[in-house]
Structure formats: C-alpha cells, structure tokens
Amino acid sequence: MQPFTKAVIDIIKSIPPGKVMTYGSVAALAGSPRAARQVVRILHAMSKKEGLPWHRIVNAKGEIALSSDEGRLLQSLYLRDEGVEVGEDGRIELARYFHRPS
Questions:
Q1: How confident is the model over 5-57, as pLDDT tens digits?
Q2: What is the DSSP string of 26-79?
Q3: For residues 43-52, b (16+ Cβ closer than 10 Å) or e, as one string?
Q4: Rounded distance, CA 44 to CA 98, Å?
Q5: 3-class SS at 86?
Q6: How far is residue 3's CA from residue 29's CA, in Å, rounded to a whole number?
Q7: 74-83 burial code (b ≥16 CB/10 A, e <16)
Q8: What is the mean pLDDT of residues 86-96?
Q9: Cα–Cα distance, 79 to 64 (Å, whole number)
Q10: Cβ distance 73 to 86 under 8 Å?
Q11: Structural element, H or E, at residue 88
Q12: Are 45 and 86 in contact (CB under 8 A)?
C-alpha cells in the first residue's frame, strides 16, 4: 500500500461520529493538498475492505457529492444518525461539523 493511501485511510478512520472532513482536507493532511480526486478514488476502492466511514467525507462546499440519488440519501441518513444536520440541498454546515485533528 502506498504511503499516501495508508495516510488517507488512517485519517478517514480517525474522523469521529458527528463530524465530517472534505476530500481536499483529507488530501492535505495526508501530505498532498492537490490530491482530492485521489481521495475519492481511495474511498471508492477501499471503503468496504477497510471499513471506512465514507459518509463523513463531503466536498469543499460542505455538500454531499455523490451523484446517485440512492448514495446521497444513504450518506444523508448516516450523517443524520450521527447527529449531523443535513439540509434538504445535501449541505452540511462545515463551521459546525468540520473535524480538525489535533
């Protein structure tokens, strides 16, 4: 496993319930600030295998970025179950729910 991939997985696993991070913030914390799309690929390929809380990752605007209606609904439900308020437009208030690792 590549060091960047391992770092991304570790960061995503560390996001506590009720908090979110953006693709770009995960990439930056993993050492490659311009690799947000790579974070998307890692989530797509490894979420199930690694047991990643994929639903805690949103885009830079705080929006659920999944394209399928089913995926958006599922992510919204998972986040709401953790106490995250998700607007009807699929937006999360980043100022309130963004996870800032120590």
A1: 999 999 999 999 999 999 999 999 999 999 999 999 999 999 999 999 999 99
A2: HHHHTT-TT-HHHHHHHHHHHHHHHT--GGGEE-TTSB---SSHHHHHHHHHHH
A3: beebbeebeb
A4: 21
A5: strand
A6: 12
A7: ebbebbeebe
A8: 93
A9: 10
A10: no
A11: none
A12: no
Comparing CA positions, the residue from 73, 13, 82 lying closest to residue 43 is 13
Instruction: Write out the two tokens for 29.
Output: 């914390």
Task: For residue 9, count other CB atoms closer than 10 A to its CB.
Answer: 21
HSE-up of 14 (CA within 13 Å, CB side)? 13
In residues, how long is the chain? 102
Structure-token match 């809380």, residue found: 53
- Joined together, the tokens standing for residue 97 give 């729910």
pLDDT of residue 97: 97
Whole-number Å distance between alpha carbons of 60 and 70: 21
